[in-house]
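Prompt: I keep going back and forth on a fold encoding question. Comparing notes only helps if you start from a blank page. Show me how you would write down a chain together with its backbone fold. Please set it down just below, with no commentary around it:
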Amino acid sequence: NAFDRRLGQKQVVSRWLGWRLRGMVASALLGCLGIFALAYWLSTEPLLGATWRTTGNGQVELHLAQAPALKAVQGKTLVGIAGGEGEAAPVDGLVLERSARWLIDDPQQERYLSLHDRLAAALEHPTVQLRFSDSTVLSVDPQPRGFAGLGLLFWVLCALALVLYGVAMAVLMARPGWRNATYCAMAFAQAGNLVFIAIESTLDLAWPRGLANWDLYGRIAFDLITSAGIVHATATHPHRVPHARLIVGMAWGLSLVLIALGLAGWLPNLWWWCQGASALL
């Protein structure tokens, strides 16, 4: 057009490419810094140095002990952990569930979150007491896991999340618009799911304090956002279906209302509502 001829087509293209390149570099740097900050935080979290398993009667047994202090109680059933001289946080088979996301009953979800908060608070003490079913009490000093203690699976899943995030940003930078923004929302949600699964792979016995709540509500939000994004995409591409605007608005509205009600604690039967809405969408 006249604007291109006046400035010169090459100059316009170079400016556009320069803007996209700077945006890609900035977003890639932000993503790498986010993964590094998460890994650094997890590396400082206390670790007991043992592998636990659930027994047939729903109790927690010390399966394998890496820490020398725990080898004497290997095979015993753990019933509680106390930080310092405080009250012991109870331990049972529910603790070893990797995420509250897959617990379908509200009371069970609430108990799971409460147990992990209490365990995380106990493990923050320099010395903790492990209490076993045979009245054995063992004092141990939890140690930071370090970067090596995060495990290979954590880094692989975080790398996949970073790649998915980078591809989404490249798509958005290449052609900004609502359609690509919808794709980015879905891609970011799936990258977030991968990050939470990566964190789960590092767990020793308890989530870091407060993170179990983020896992529950974050992953529910990611699933609903992905479902609404799929409705949005199929209603508008490659051809707009009749009443596309109404369909898209209802899909996003339902998802956002459920997310808000869930975060506020005003949505009973949270798992059933969110799974039902995802299936419906």
The helical segments are 2-7, 9-43, 106-123, 152-174, 178-200, 211-236, 244-264, 270-280.
